[in-house]
TrEMBL record:
Residues 1-44 form the HTH araC/xylS-type domain. The lineage of its organism: Bacteria, Bacillati, Actinomycetota, Actinomycetes, Kitasatosporales. The keyword Transmembrane helix does not apply. Residues 10-64 form the HTH lacI-type domain. Keywords: DNA-binding, Repressor, Transcription, Transcription regulation. This is LacI family transcription regulator.
């Protein structure tokens, strides 16, 4: 059958006739519904391509779906978020869902406003990456829109959760540094939004893992945490505070790679060599960590896997699953050139 000609918009009926299937079969392919054979999916996709068929978003929204997924994060400068987004796109590629990304900043009100805007625009589902707005608001949203929360360890029936074993990840860093001979090991962390109602944010779980590991090695009295923002500038300020002090630590554990890069800058300004004068480790194992001038030892959270898992769970939620699911990713330590034995005077 020849493709439809003229200016008339191609419809789902045209696709069904061209593919030799029912309109319900085409609808299932469009929805990425379960129970569609690979052969059927390929036939329908081929017909859509030949006819240059594009689903009408407004009409779909009137029928109950817009085939759009909203992703909310606090900023787009965090390279770890790019890994997560790549995973989300990988899982959704080849399907009919499109992703709209909202970077709301760190403020509770701004994040709440953007989350509500995504809901008002009839997103079929939401992926919230480390949300900083109140948990009560997230639960209200998730009660009406399928939602997956990435990062926070607080679980609820209303949404699915994808987390990293952050306490274990912190322990991997401390164990590695202690094996090298370090004792004065400092951590850079962030307070987050204290009044948001979240008790299991990644930074809190990570801090707990840091203190537990220091205590396990008998170093609890030497534990030291510099609170700052998880940003390059925040890491720089924490680095200046720690590295310019009289009791300078022999190793710094940056709670995020982006903060570790700020510590890296502070070290350069103070004339300190890494790892000869002090060791530095990060968290996230972003692409920046592997760059030749940096070669940062870091904890790999498998951000891509977290993203693909979140997207898969969200599609299941959209298709009707109501039981809550918690998926935990196991971290691993990637040792590079920024960690080594402490200076001889410290041994």
């Amino acid at each position: 059958m020849a493709p439809t000609s003229g200016k008339r918009r191609v419809t789902i009926t045209d696709v069904a006739l061209h593919a030799g299937v029912s309109t319900s079969a085409v609808s299932k392919v469009l929805r990425n519904a379960y129970g569609v054979s690979p052969e059927m999916r390929e036939r329908v996709r081929a017909a859509m391509a030949e006819l240059d068929y594009r689903p009408h978003a407004a009409a779909r929204g009137m029928r109950g779906r817009t085939y759009t997924i909203g992703v909310l994060l606090d900023n787009i400068r965090n390279a770890f978020f790019a890994d997560i987004l790549e995973g989300v796109n990988t899982e959704l590629r080849g399907g009919d869902y499109q992703v709209l990304i909202g970077a709301a900043g760190f403020g509770e009100e701004d994040q709440t406003r953007l989350a509500r805007a995504l809901v008002d625009r009839q997103m079929d589902g939401l992926i919230l990456i480390g949300p900083g707005f109140p948990r009560t608001e997230v639960l209200r949203t998730a009660a009406t829109v399928p939602t997956v929360v990435i990062g926070h360890h607080d679980v609820a029936e209303e949404h699915d959760s994808v987390v990293d074993a952050d306490a274990l990840g912190a322990g991997l860093v401390i164990d590695h540094l202690v094996r090298l001979g370090h004792r004065r090991i400092a951590l850079t962390s962030t307070p987050g939004n204290r009044g948001s109602g979240w008790s299991g944010t990644p930074e809190r779980v990570q801090r707990r893992g840091y203190h537990e590991a220091m205590r396990r090695h008998g170093l609890q009295d030497l534990a030291r945490v510099a609170m700052t923002a998880f940003s390059e500038e925040g890491g720089y300020r924490a680095g200046m505070e720690l590295l310019a002090s009289a009791d300078r630590p022999t190793a710094v554990f940056g709670g995020a790679d982006v903060a570790a890069m700020g510590v890296f800058r502070a070290a350069r300004e103070l004339g300190l060599r890494i790892p000869e004068d002090f060791s530095l480790a990060g968290y996230n194992n972003t692409a920046v960590a592997a760059l030749a001038p940096v070669r940062l030892t870091s904890v790999d959270q498998a951000g891509g896997l977290m993203g693909t898992t979140a997207a898969r769970l969200l599609l299941e939620r959209i298709e009707g699953r109501t039981r809550s699911v918690l998926m935990t990713v196991s971290p691993s330590l990637v040792v590079r050139g920024t960690t080594g034995p402490p200076p001889a005077t410290e041994v």
